[in-house]
Fold each of these.
Amino acid sequence: MRAHSASLTICWKDLRQELRTRESFTATFFFSLLLLIVFSFSFDFQSLGLGFEEIGAGILWITLTFSAILSLQNSFLIEREKNCLAGLALCPCDPSAVFLGKFLANSLFVLVVQTLVLPISCLLFGYDLLRVLPGLCLVVTVNVVGFSALGTLFAAISVRTRKSELLLPLLLLPAATPVVIWGVKATRLCLAGRPLDSYGYLVALSACFGVIFTVAGVLLFDFVMEE
């Protein structure tokens, strides 16, 4: 089986499973929505003289980071519960295709959730999203891809442990700190209406992060599955 065909098959398998059950989507979406509602009712930003431009980046990335971790925890959960991890490792294709399929499915899933969350956040905080939409989409997409590449690799590492739900955040959050910081800074500049030139270097750093860990996942996934 060709690598790209196997990757698309595994990606479609995961997405079809999620479309059938909607378990991860429901948990992730309502968790994100709950965080936004808590933030919107906990602080009176207008009385503090703050607008969404000042606090929006932090709120969006707290929501994105923890919702992404929640979805990544389920990346290999079905295979573990059905005792199919060995079957996944014996799949008649290059192991890198399994990683790429999982990585693609995770990235698409997180992006779909954020596509719904971003308009809701702007509605709750009274912010005009349309004027910064192209730049914001670029920042979120690039950083989500980098975060998902690292998260997919760590999800594969932690899936065989008894406390994988606890181990994954402990591994992922420190390692993903650079891409989260770059995402917050780029999002803040984007929401403030700055041109792409002012935060383009941050997007480039996040893109390099994503490339590095995608390549690392491709090269190391065979050894991870053997363990």
Note: The chain has ten helices and no strands.
Amino acid sequence: MTSTAESTTKTVNVTGIGPVDLTVQEQGDGRPFLVLHGGAGPQSVAKFAQLLAEKGGNRVITPTHPGFSGTPRPDQLNSVAKLAALYLTLVDDLGLEDVTVIGNSVGGWIAAEIALLGAARISGIVLLDAVGIEVDGHPVADVSGLSVPEIQALSFHDPTPFRVDPATIPDAQRAIMAANGAALAVYAGSPAMADPTLFGRINAISIPTLVLWGDSDRIVEPAYGEAYASAIPGARFEVLPATGHMPQMETPDLVLDAVAVE
């Protein structure tokens, strides 16, 4: 079975923020999943979203964080917590129920904030090498100033399949990458990529939580992920072999198996 992704722009009116034009890809039917990308942008979850939709007949919604991939970002949309409110409003607007939120890196941080809002429409979260907390002795790697190959070396167990020659990147793509980085800095801060209050708040998460971590992640080490899981009541922690910071790209089948998509 194949799944066709349909990209649309939805105007989502968020309390305290106002109307936000949100680019959303939707594909498949059935059990709903909200998939949230990290700083690498929406392309870092695109293939995984397709696999998720195809394997088991799921409905997959993949928004682009405003400010990424050339999309507009309203000035007042300036934090991870506000992104969480945006996506909960999107879920409400779509009339979705029993939603599982899967987030990678900063997308995982957004998923944690969504869970803390206690929305009845959300039934579980999956954190893929999430950032957002502060763990003594295990800071999030500061990638500012690093080259693309250096960042990839930290991000993947084996960066070979994902290598890009910086000299071949078109100017338009460079501009988008720069804008992505600027948007990420607004939402998550740089280089900390953390909210000092989050670790003390996630013990209030009351929905099923799965924390998946690449054993070769050098952006946020597995010990960081273990601390994340230990702070969330009942959370399950699983380390994925031969996997870096973006399991949905490097070992998507392991992620699908862990999420129990049938």
Note: The first helix runs from residue 43 to 54.
Amino acid sequence: MTPSHLIIATTGRALARSAWRSGHPVAVLDLFADQDTRGYATVCQRIPASDWNLDAAATVRAANEICPVPVPLVTGSGFENQPALLDALARGRKLLGNSAETVTASKDPRHFFALLDRLGIAHPDTSLTLPDDPTGWLAKQIGGSGGTHVRPALIGEAYPPDTYFQRHVGGVCASVLFLADGRHARVVGFNEIWSRSVGNTPFAYAGAVNRVALAPILRSRIAADVNAIAGALGLVGLNGMDFIVGRDEYRVLEINPRPTATLDLHDDQVAGSLFDLHVSACAGTLPPALHISNTVRAHAVVYSPIGARQTRSLVFPDWCSDLPADPTGIPIGMPVCTVNATGGNVSEVARMIRQRRALLENLLMEKAA
């Protein structure tokens, strides 16, 4: 079947599943080409990478090979620090997502945090240079994603030029998934974001749940701020914003100018799919207020808990997704799969997630013994 869209991302499974739900035959290029994505896509191909960066030449070549007749391009994570690759892929194709120029502006700390100041939106103290006393500060990579680029700032460390620094603020880490049409935004849902230490990465993305404790007035303020930010940046389609929630305030951490990992947690609550709503929003049409499901959903990434190992004989439970196409010898610190849970309340679902992640990690260690 001829693909209707080409999806390119670090991982394209969530977008591919959403497209599959509404009957779109898609082609996918990503870093994993896992079993799930192959099931949802008409064609799926793995792209080589270095330090989580898509190989630019290989990506352009593969895109031209699997879609010789250009079809609309839908992009996910992987382009925040590679805008030139996004620009190259968009030539001759209809881009359903933010342009390279918009992505660059959204991720440039000079531009983005100055915009927040003009709009009167709070954010942690941010600096382009290492503070004299970096205690309580974090070092972040411009265009980084997934938390793997975030580390405590240290005196004497040799930081690359694409580093900026942000004061570490206590509170609950959260995000909002939203649709934008270039002028306005519509909230899809709020999430609590989980992180954990993986190898030498203390803030790796560990998963999320599609609920977070927010007072109604704070929800309204965040929705209004997202609307202002989306209009100022000209964002289109699905996007995310990460923030820290305090007792009665919140502070913006960053904008993710593309569909985020939390798409999975909200896709089943809409008629059709979020893929369809993303396409419509890119064309300038936002839906009316979205129905918020009563079902609590969460997912968590299972990272390799030990060194290289054999997992070919492991039978993954049916509450796992992102199943590896080649499960042998996944090195420490790399994702193995995702565990999922649904239920009636956050505490129940969070408990299920912890138990399932621990069970998978134990199974993986047993197989390696």
Note: The mean pLDDT is 93.
Amino acid sequence: MSSKVYINKVEKFLPNNPVSNDEMEDILGKINHTPSKSRRLILRNNRIQTRYYALDNQQKITHNNAELTALAINKLVADDFSLNDIDILSCGTSTPDVLLPSHAAMVHGLLKNKSVELNSSSGVCCSGMNALKYGFLAIKAETANNAVCTGSERVSTWMMANKFEAEITNLEALEEQPILAFKKDFLRWMLSDGAGAMLLENQPKGSLPIEILWMENYSYAHELETCMYAGGEKMEDGSIKAWSEFSTDEWKNESVFSLKQDVKILDEFILKKGVESMGDAMKKYQISPENITYFLPHISSVFFKDKLYNEFKHAGLEIAKDKWFINLPKVGNVGAASIYLMLEELYHSNKLKSGDTIMLSVPESGRFSYAYAFLKVV
């Protein structure tokens, strides 16, 4: 016999004040003291208006990733739940503070509660959903009564201008144009910092328990090459050369650890495989668009919203636009945390009522993976 699983609380932590489009480059810095030529075009397409950085106006770091995550978790604490009640701590992120120990271990170290079971999910945006699924399956299997699951990112420090100074200097020495490649500059205007946390339990509690009915994941790495990556360089044949195969000088001169994205492959496959995988999930669990009250798709850019809607419509899976719930323009693309931040906002919006269903949809362009969850308000 398996237990039912309920999301009984959802919280978030966003650092500092919202950053407007005009303030971004002042905080992240100008590469080679020159304004980015692609910034305005990218912002016009993604339509993000504000985002959050764990940096102050003097470019000083205010929080690391583990701290953001711990602060979100602490907001789950109430009279009926303490940090010492946690059975499982499951944390997902694309941007851990260190290679080792794991992100979950670093978060646990800040909580200073008791010994708990840990799980760290790596990857890109799906890492937050994978962390959620670990908690879901553990409670479902009756090996735990509860799980705290998180998604978080602290990516702003990866995108600061000083991270690219050595590369620009090297280009000048080679008498090449000292401009950051679009595959790197593109992401500087897309990503944000923040953390979300959910409390999963085997009994419905509180004023708005939400049952997780099912979760489903898909990967297409067996047929598609890498699209978004860090800590390596993409070769002409599509393979990735790892950071450990470069010299330390190359780490700096080629910004090996920076985030990069192959935009051409992104545009070709991200929507196509998203519709294919969601269609497969809906068929497996025998649901149709009419069964969905709220659709929460993680999209990196509002540019993709109409395109995704049209792809669904073409595939016979049209989800009415009034069912879509997106907060990207306000909080930015926070990677693994984005789906947590969307559900948190909907959860606290006073819109949900008993019987409502929620479809969570998260793609990641790392090597084209997709994660889904279907929820029902009790």
Note: The radius of gyration is 20 Å.
